[in-house]
Amino acid sequence: xxxxxxxxxxxxxxxxxxxxxxxxxxxxxxxxxxxxxxxxxxxxxxxxxxxxxxxxxxxxxxxxxxxxxxxxxxxxxxxxxxxxxxxxxxxxxxxxxxxxxxxxxxxxxxxxxxxxxx
Amino acid sequence: xxxxxxxxxxxxxxxxxxxxxxxxxxxxxxxxxxxxxxxxxxxxxxxxxxxxxxxxxxxxxxxxxxxxxxxxxxxxxxxxxxxxxxxxxxxxxxxxxxxxxxxxxxxxxxxxx
Lengths: 118, 113
Known about the structure:
The complex is a heterodimer. Chain A is mainly beta. Chain A has strands at about 5, 10-15, 20-25, 30-35, 45-50, 55, 65-70, 75-80, 85-95, 110, 115.
């Protein structure tokens, strides 16, 4: 099973709202990722967690706050977003997290959350 | 920094014809190489991944890719296009077994009857 699940599928929020995106995988993967994808563009990396610790932050604005409560869950907390933050947010996981050589670098993506900021 | 170039942002093929999507990477060391497909309003699905065991890699849905170190290329092919192949295709590379995936700009494939 190579399934990554994300909830919700769609989210509409105002600029003063606080919301969270959730991601879950039960494949025993050691690294988890958040990507942002605008229409007609490739995904852009936001954050990487390796063994539940934040390893990479691609200079993402603080209005996006990631959290990794355990090895299977990844959250993205949203606060005071701007309309330009509207996008498809993708979660991914990979077998290797750096301490092992599991896998060949492949990442498995969830279906995404379509976020609209009004 | 490594980069990935996909030639052609749009490719139109007839049903039953060969599909060829080009990908070139810039790296002095063969990186980890992948092709992903994205259908409208969906996430990315892994089509295939390069392993050093063979230069010709077979993936899902009848796709395959050939690694050519001398040309720093990893082109994707399918002998006979099907209507269900209409999607966006991304080539991606990584320099290690985890971490940042560098994506190409993507190629939109349209299949005509």
